[in-house]
Specification:
619 residues; Ubiquitin-like (UB roll); Cytidine Deaminase, domain 2
């Protein structure tokens, strides 16, 4: 009989040790795992590698020895409901590649293709290949060696070196996420035992030793208590708006109505060189979804175009990277000042905003290979537009911690009624078990004490992200000459997206500015979603031209039949407008009570020069 060994099984429910032997069948070993974790049969898979490669299938003919498992090795348990990236299935000692990855757009054409849901962002792939070392110049007083040598005074520092980060001007408060990963994977093991797991506040399912909650609970299925800690790393280190014009158009809604406004930020992630291995979120456009707002309230409505917006953005090379919210109260209209509402004596982010930010971050998770679920944290950012101490408008960037994301994901964090800056952790009920959540603070004597998070200061789960504008303005979506194309969902301001506004916009653009004129996210969304324009299925070449800034390709696209039809429609509108100007004014005897539009068949009840629906002329 072979020597007994111990195999560690890592999962989102924790790590457990399984006593087995090399001569034991894989079937029997997996049965032990199922019994130890109290999981339903068929609801989980075991992999030899953390990145869900080499799945172990149940087989009574296969022994652990054939899998090259040794004493103390770790295998990885993953829920079967999660996205399967399992290539190379181990079955009966044969490597099977029939379960290769499949792209969301269709069958895989390459062995390296993986589903979008488990594909890292390009910036993460780039930074993972960088060493991130902080190089230092030779010190003329302390270094006494040749130009090609290094000593303790000039040897490169690690990207997570605390002394360097604190002594920077200005100091770097949070280490970047990729520098944090370098710290985890340093040393002799090279991160073999490093793991990034989100906390869970839910009862582990499948426990058969007692009735389900609220009639029973045990230490095996009960979630652990949570102690909130200030997160010392952040997934995004800087937010940059490409140009002031972006936010000026966004703020015009508040300036004209006095009502608050919310928008989604579209842009890209790039390397932020001011922070070792840092990531910058670059904002290229702001899309405003349907909403009902007032001076101090805001309610989001269902957006029937949401899917189209994301699709168009992805095709022109940007993605949804955050959201922006105004909280502005005018103080002096003559001086243009605003009130300073958020500071250390009030709050920086309200509990409601914090919970909403966490919900957005949960919807846009960060792909990470060190996590058994391939998900850890988020790069989705929050920007709050408010007044600063000098009573001018400021842009404050934030993210919530991974712990806060877990609390909101499990629906146990709620705002308080009378204090915006305080959150409250729910108490257990017959419908839901809630573990204890604590945070640390200092009492009146300066001693550190642990307090129950009922309530809790919301600052414990916040991470500040600086937001700024570049010296040299950038324009991913430059737009055309003259007045810009109207922004969607602004009918209250008289900004209407229809064929008339589209035609007027196109007519203002010279042929030499064709590509820039169509490089407007608001315009592109209208072109895709408008039923009047025959362009919905013929825009791929234009999207590619905008993405690559290829004027020749844009000019080639403009020769297609669909765009020629649009130009004829615009020309027809101009001719119709000229003819309606010469129509005689109807008298009482010849009053026109109604007319039918030849374009959309709407029966108009007036003598207007254009249709009330499609805005085209009557002839």
């Amino acid at each position: 009989m072979s020597k007994p060994i111990l195999v560690r099984v890592q999962s989102r429910y924790g790590t457990k040790r399984i006593n087995t032997s090399l001569s034991e069948s894989v079937q029997k070993f997996l049965d032990k795992v199922e019994e130890e974790f109290k999981l339903p049969t068929g609801s989980w898979n075991i992999y030899l590698e953390r990145n869900k490669k080499k799945k172990i299938s149940k087989s009574s003919r296969l022994y652990l020895k054939s899998l090259n498992i040794r004493h103390g090795d770790m295998v990885y348990l993953v829920d079967a409901t999660s996205t399967d990236n399992g290539v190379d299935v181990v079955s009966d000692g044969v490597m099977d590649s029939t379960q290769s990855d499949v792209s969301l757009n269709g069958p895989s054409t390459s062995a390296n293709d993986v589903p979008d849901s488990v594909r890292e962002d390009a910036i993460d792939v780039f930074l993972a290949k960088q060493d991130g070392l902080i190089h230092r110049q030779k010190d003329p007083q302390l270094c006494h060696h040749g130009p090609k040598s290094k000593c303790v005074h000039c040897f490169p520092l690690k990207p997570y070196d605390e002394t360097y980060l604190k002594n920077r001007e200005p100091p770097i408060k949070h280490v970047s996420f990729h520098a944090y990963l370098k710290k985890l994977t340093q040393g002799h093991t090279k991160g073999k035992f490093a793991v990034l797991e989100d906390i869970t506040c839910k009862i582990k399912p499948g426990c058969k030793e007692h009735p389900p909650w609220p009639d029973g609970i045990c230490t095996k299925c009960q979630p652990s208590a949570v102690t909130l800690k200030r997160q010392d790393y952040r997934h995004v280190d800087n937010i940059m708006f490409e140009n002031p014009f972006l936010v000026e158009r966004f703020l015009n809604y508040w300036r004209k109505t006095g009502k608050q406004r919310m928008g989604y930020l579209y842009g890209r992630y790039e390397h932020h060189k001011d922070v070792p291995l840092g990531i910058r979120a670059v904002v290229s456009a702001i899309y405003e979804p349907p909403q009902i707002s007032d001076a101090d309230t805001l309610q989001l409505l269902d957006d029937p175009r949401a899917e189209y917006v994301d699709q168009v953005a992805n095709k022109v090379g940007v993605q949804k990277i955050g959201w922006i919210l105004t909280d502005l109260v005018a103080e002096d209209l003559q001086l243009g000042t605003v009130r300073h509402l958020r500071h250390k004596d009030t709050y920086y982010v309200s509990a409601e905003e914090c919970i909403m930010a966490a919900d957005f971050q949960n919807r846009h998770p960060n792909v990470c290979k060190l996590s058994p679920t391939n998900r850890f944290g988020s790069k989705f950012v929050t920007v709050i537009v408010t007044g600063h101490s000098e009573k001018q408008i400021s842009f404050d960037g934030w993210q919530v911690s991974n712990q806060c994301m877990a609390l909101v994901q499990d629906d146990i964090l709620v705002p308080t009624k009378d204090e915006p800056g305080l959150g409250y952790v729910r108490e257990s009920s017959s419908q839901q078990y809630v573990p204890d959540v604590f945070y640390t603070d200092k009492d009146s004597y300066g001693n550190e004490v642990t307090l129950l998070a009922r309530p809790m200061p919301i600052e414990y789960v916040l991470t500040e992200v600086p937001a700024a504008f570049p010296k040299d303005h950038q324009y991913t979506f430059p737009g055309g000459n003259g007045d810009p194309f109207p922004i969607a969902n602004r009918e209250e301001l008289g900004e209407i997206q229809d064929f008339h506004s589209f035609a007027e916009y196109v007519k203002r653009q010279p042929r030499s500015n064709f590509l820039n004129a169509l490089s407007d996210l608001h315009l592109l969304i209208f072109m895709v979603t408008s039923d009047m324009l025959p362009l919905k299925h013929s825009l791929d070449m234009l999207f590619e031209a905008i993405k690559t800034t290829d004027e020749n390709k844009a000019y080639e696209w403009s020769k297609n039949e669909q765009w020629a039809t649009v130009e004829e429609m615009i020309k027809s509108q101009d001719e119709g407008s000229e003819s309606t100007r010469s129509l005689p004014t109807p008298s009482q005897e010849t009053k026109i009570t109604q007319w039918t539009c030849k374009h959309c068949t709407f029966i108009n009840q007036s003598t207007s020069n254009s249709c009330d629906i499609c805005r085209l002329p009557p002839t």
